[in-house]
Amino acid sequence: MKNVRINLGRRSYRIAIGSGLLDRIGDMLAELPVGRKVLLVTNTTVGAIYAGRVTGSLAQAGLEVFQVAIPDGEQYKTLSSAELLYDRAFTAGLDRRSAVVALGGGVVGDLAGFVAATYMRGVPFVQVPTTLLAQVDSSVGGKVAVNHPRGKNIIGAFYQPALVVSDTAALDTLPRRELRSGLAEVIKYGIIGDASFFTWLEDNIHQVLALEPGALAHVIEQSCINKARVVEQDETEQGTRAILNLGHTVGHAIEALAGYGRYSHGEAVAMGTAVAIHLGMDLGMLSREAARRIKNLLHKAGLPTTVPPGLATRDIITAMYGDKKTVGGAITFIIPVDTGRAVIHRRTSEERIRQAIAAARAQ
Ligand SMILES: O=C(O)C(=O)C[C@@H](O)[C@H](O)[C@H](O)COP(=O)(O)O
Ligand SMILES: [Zn+2]
Predict the structure, then answer these.
(1) Of residues 188, 218, 248, 278, which has the active-site annotation?
(2) Which of 58, 74, 203, 206 has its CA 20 to 30 A from that of 289?
(3) pLDDT value, residue 175
(4) Which architecture does CATH list for 176-361?
(5) Which of 159, 244, 255, 334 to mutate to test the pocket of ligand 1 (most atoms within 8 A of CB)?
(6) What is the CATH number of domain 2-173?
């Protein structure tokens, strides 16, 4: 088992990465200062495969488990799903020391985390991510949220988990499209700050797609290390943490406009990264060669790098004004300047954005 530590003073925690960890969750949870009752939040798909093992492990450690499954899909990351979980927690008699455990992908983790942050003003929270995207990104760093029809993650909080347990064997049952979606965030870490990881991905992406255990464990560990480094510097995104939003300014707009669930989060982020690449070239900040390498790696991972024709540019731009990084009407973009470095570009002009979207359609 590998461990990555995220140092945030009293809110520090570890990310345990390894094969078969689902059967050890009970013991790991028993090491935390939590009460006897646990709310296990999952979705119907993941729950059908893995909830039995997790419940068994928790019960063996003497914990009383109350399970709740929401339907599978980004369209269920809503306040009404949260309300259902509050009802279940209250009915089960969960108190302030009872833990909420999220078993599933980013939707389950964000939703369960939002409920953990707000139920009785905050109860212990444990992330058990079962998708690549959740293992490399959404389970780490404490962003929890639900969506608003007009904007992604608009209602949320910063609320760190007490523990993250990533079982790499859970990826064996992950649909290919979901695996590729997670790779968009993995590639992001290479682009924004880790040139050698970027090169490693260029050389090894096929092993990752083939679920080669060593390659997968390396990808998850390296991604978590990269994310921890950023979050430790700026936990609540007052400045530098925004770098983790590469591809998300346009990506979130696409997800909301197309209807949540139409494109996976990673697909939308890949499209958004393509727009950011064109902005970078247009601003003279990114060389053609670096742009080619980034696009090429996204392609190798099976991700889209064009903006879909059905989404009008003016609608994408309007949706971007609702982005959390838009402050005082100024749209912020994260722009790659090399394979291993990106910058936060504030006040990006609408005209340049329009041109970059057009360029990303024309590919
Ligand atoms: O953890 C972060 O910070 C990120 O930006 C990671 C993103 O990949 C993730 O999708 C995040 O939820 C987006 O944050 P948001 O604040 O733009 O909603
Ligand atoms: Zn993301």
Answers:
(1) 248
(2) 206
(3) 96
(4) Up-down Bundle (1.20)
(5) 244
(6) 3.40.50.1970
